[in-house]
Design goal:
Bound molecules: magnesium ion
Strand order of the largest sheet: 18-19-21-22-23-24-25-26
Strand content: 15-25%
Distance between the termini: 120 Å
Number of domains: 4
Number of strands: 27
Radius of gyration: 45 Å
CATH class of the largest domain: Alpha Beta
Length: 658
């Protein structure tokens, strides 16, 4: 019962009851005070003929009387009671709120406590693109489809809250379906009306929400392929990882890289490239389950996350399916392309693993798959992980290496092939890592270059080596013309500061510049990089010697040998072997003659067999270095070796000829 009319005036009570009934408000007449017990019921008390016992009444009392009374809760004239009541409650003659009309800018829906729609206003029906009658006497689910199977839906929760606690609720956003089947977004406030009915005031925020959703979509999905982007991938991977730990299930992360994508982009342009990427993404998505994630990291790199694996071998099967899907022909316009892909897989197997480390491991495995010939998949193994850890340890320790004197110079003598006279030495950098031990240059030189530390480390090396070399000359350990050669990376060579740094050091030490050589890579001879020619010119005018290191690895033309003023080329062991074993005339001799005609000396590297010396000497190779003569040594061992050598061989270190 919505309200109880308490009056001894039956006629007045009947009139009031009838009026309320027209407005769908259930009313009952009662003359007994004993029924004044429930809080939800509104008590309409006629106090015309008597004084009600106010203390017995609960909160919701309206007192009608023409006689002002000091004790009353609310005093109102009884003659206009029906209309006043409707106005006061905001209800029109049809039982709708009086503001549920064309004057309200909001959409309004009135429902009963079963969710049956009693009425909707014009704004609401136009928002829903239909006539009000279409929805009246249907359930609220017709407008808010999410209500159908979600009993915990916010609207229902709010209705419950209102029914049981009498609290109004506001400001929740709901997706509504209009008569055309399109989504509208409504901000809904729910309030209770008299008679177990509820008013839903709805503000249409579709435009605002759609642009917000579009922005949200843009931030989380790759615009080209519609796949998850890196941000969404990381979110999903973190959640998947948490689930896999909780339920003790395996999770696979696959790093997929298209094999022959770049030439398509380069040859046919981005339109072709983009079409291939979209198609590749779609094929991958078709290969995995709905719950799995396919994301594009950028370029032609994708990540696939497979959850809930029964066995790690299943990941191999899925990878095989992806390989097959992408090995089918791709078409763009009238053209057909073979693409294919390589895949690196890692399986989460420890509690300490995080999303980033899984992707790094998959990347390591991908690298291996590519190096083994592409169009295949590889799992990340413990050996691969150990390599990655090793690289990380080196990377972390690199800064300290210089500060804590962990870097050391080693010297390897270079001797003449005919007399074994020591003519000079090559300076080599060694790293004594406190945990790892001796780190070979091939492991840390790339890191120095990647981090840019090659410049300060290079400058430190040049200064320290020059000081040492000058000191050995001053004490008479080596000949004053003996030459020291220092390896220079490509990035050092193109640095503006290199030559001025060397000039400053050699002048401070009073070291003749022709007793110093820089060993550069063969590829610099044919490089068209900006500034390389300038560096060569400045070196030539400075008087510092240029050695071409590891000669024989590249494809140097005779022209580039004659283009620059080179002092020597250092021949790689395989080149020496192939030249000496070539059929017909001694090619090594012919090559030496050519080099000499360009005033370039020949130094053989990596000579570990003394028997080779005779051939080298006869072929015109001037000098050599290698284990057969002497290994690289630190400064004190080098001193010891040279002293002993000078005494036993009775040969004073000589200078280079010419
Ligand atoms: Mg070298």
């Amino acid at each position: 019962m919505d309200c109880i009319i308490i009056s001894e005036d039956d006629e007045w009570a009947q009139q009031l009851e009838a009026k309320l009934s027209q407005a769908n408000i259930q009313a009952a007449r009662n003359t007994s005070k004993s029924s004044l017990t429930t809080e939800d019921t509104l008590y309409l008390v006629d106090a015309a003929n008597r004084q009600p016992d106010i203390a017995d009444c609960s909160k919701r009392i309206v007192l009608f009387t023409d006689q002002p009374n000091e004790q009353s809760v609310v005093q109102l004239p009884r003659t206009n009671a029906p209309q006043w009541l409707l106005n006061h409650l905001g209800i029109g003659s049809k039982g709708l709120p009086t503001n549920c009309g064309s004057t309200s800018s909001e959409g309004q829906i009135i429902v009963d406590n079963n969710g049956v729609i009693l009425s909707i206003n014009e704004n609401m029906s136009s928002c829903l693109s239909g006539a009000a009658e279409q929805w009246e006497n249907t359930y609220l689910d017709e407008i808010f489809p999410e209500l159908t199977d979600k009993t915990n839906h916010p609207v229902r929760r709010q209705l419950n809250k209102l029914c049981h606690q009498g609290q109004p609720c506001s400001g929740h956003l709901f997706a509504a379906k209009n008569s055309l089947g399109r989504n509208r977004y409504l901000e809904v406030n729910v309030s209770k009306l008299i008679g177990n009915r509820f008013l839903l005031s709805c503000r249409d925020v579709t435009q605002r929400t759609s642009s917000h959703n579009a922005m949200r979509h843009k931030a989380r999905f790759d615009a080209l392929t519609g796949l998850a982007n890196r941000q969404l991938l990381m979110d999903r991977l973190r959640m998947a990882l948490a689930r896999s730990k909780r339920f003790q299930r395996q999770l696979a992360v696959m790093y997929v890289d298209l094999d022959h994508f770049k030439p398509i982009n380069d040859t046919w342009g981005h339109a072709a490239g983009d079409a291939i990427l979209r198609e590749a993404g779609a094929r991958m998505k078709d290969t995995v389950r709905e719950i799995d994630t396919v994301a594009r990291l950028g370029g032609d790199e994708f990540i696939v996350v497979i959850e809930d694996l029964q066995d790690h071998r299943d990941a191999g099967t899925i990878a095989e399916n992806i390989l097959n899907a992408l090995s089918n022909i791709f078409s763009w316009q009238q053209h057909e392309f073979n693409i294919g892909c390589s895949i690196g897989i890692t399986i989460s197997d420890s509690d300490n693993e995080d999303a980033n480390s899984l992707i790094e491991k998959a990347d390591l495995a991908l690298y291996r798959a590519k190096s083994k010939g592409r169009q295949r998949f590889e799992f990340c193994t413990s050996e691969l992980t150990a390599q990655a850890r090793y690289k990380m340890v080196l990377q972390e320790g690199l800064q300290q290496a210089l500060q804590e004197n962990q870097l050391e110079l080693h010297f390897q003598p270079i001797a003449s092939t005919d007399s074994n006279t020591i003519e000079g030495a090559e300076v080599l950098l060694r790293w004594q890592h406190p945990k790892v031990g001796t780190v070979p240059p091939k492991d840390f030189m790339p890191l120095l270059e990647q981090t840019g530390l090659i410049i300060p480390v290079g400058e430190w090396l040049i200064e320290k080596a020059c000081k040492q070399w000058v000191q050995w000359k001053e004490i008479g350990l080596i000949h004053k013309n003996a030459r020291m050669s220092i390896n220079i990376s490509n990035c050092q060579f193109s640095s503006q500061q290199l030559i001025s740094h060397i000039q400053r050091i050699t002048s401070n030490l009073n070291m003749p510049k022709n007793t110093l050589a820089l060993e550069i890579s063969e590829e610099l001879l044919s490089s068209d990089q900006n500034g390389i020619e300038d560096s060569f010119k400045r070196l030539e005018t400075s008087g510092i010697n240029i050695f071409v290191d590891d000669f024989g690895l590249g494809n140097t033309s005779i022209n580039s040998l004659s283009k620059f003023n080179l002092t020597a080329i250092k021949l790689e062991k395989p080149l020496i072997e192939s030249l000496s074993n070539a059929p017909g005339e001694n090619s090594l001799m012919a090559f030496s003659a050519l080099a000499h005609s360009l005033n370039i000396s020949m130094i053989a590297e990596g000579i570990d067999d003394k028997s080779q010396l005779k051939i080298l000497s006869e072929s015109g190779v001037d000098s050599y270095q290698g284990y057969s003569f002497c290994v690289p040594m630190n400064a004190s061992n080098f001193e010891g070796f040279i002293s002993k050598y000078n005494n036993t061989e009775k040969i004073i270190i000589n200078s280079y000829p010419g």
